[in-house]
Amino acid sequence: MQPEAHGRRVLRALDHYLAAWRWRRAVERELRALDLTLTQWLVLDACAALNAEAETPPSQRAVAERIELDAMTVSQVMKTLATEGLVDRASDVTGRTYRVLVTKKGHKLLQAAAALVEAGTRVAEGQRGAT
């Protein structure tokens, strides 16, 4: 591999990394208006998407796999979302896993969050050319 090609690949990788962090910071700023963290939004959004795709409520593990987070993190976030009335969690018939449904309150919050995530995305995209 040519040293110049390697250097371009490294710079491109760094550009992707920095763009991802700009997006994260911009979206986190927007979601603060709803007292929602980025991780909470990711978990809630994945849960809603899986609810819409399947006949049965998804397991917490399915949510974790969908957004590539570890099961413990998703479990902790689900507890918070349940306490806030955004999801309903119940053990499945085996008692070994939780099944999760997004509540009406959770769906309303996701609708409000969608506009904020889009706004944060626009901000992050605007910052890309500035750096």
Based on helices, strands and strand pairing, what is the structural class? mainly alpha
Helix residue percentage: 55-70%
Silhouette: globular
Overall structural domain count:
1
**For the record, what CATH class applies?**
Mainly Alpha
**Unreliable segments of 5+ consecutive residues:** none
Find the CATH topology. Answer: Arc Repressor Mutant, subunit A
- Average pLDDT confidence is 92
Largest sheet: 2 strands, antiparallel
CATH architecture classification: Orthogonal Bundle
DSSP helix count?
5
* Tally of strands: 2
- Order of secondary-structure elements: HHHHEEH
User: What's the arrangement of strands in the largest beta sheet?
Assistant: 1-2
User: From the alpha-carbon coordinates, what is the Rg to the nearest angstrom?
Assistant: 18 Å
**Distance, first to last CA:** 29 Å
The CATH superfamily is identified as Winged helix-like DNA-binding domain superfamily/Winged helix DNA-binding domain
Provide the β-strand percentage band. 5-15%
How would you describe this structure to a colleague?
- By secondary structure, the protein is mostly helical.
- The chain has a single domain, classed as Winged helix-like DNA-binding domain superfamily/Winged helix DNA-binding domain (Arc Repressor Mutant, subunit A, Orthogonal Bundle).
- The protein is built from five helices and two strands; from the N terminus they run H-H-H-H-E-E-H.
- Strands 1-2 form a two-stranded antiparallel ribbon.
- The longest helix is centred in the N-terminal third of the chain and has 29 residues.
- It is globular, with a radius of gyration of 18 Å.
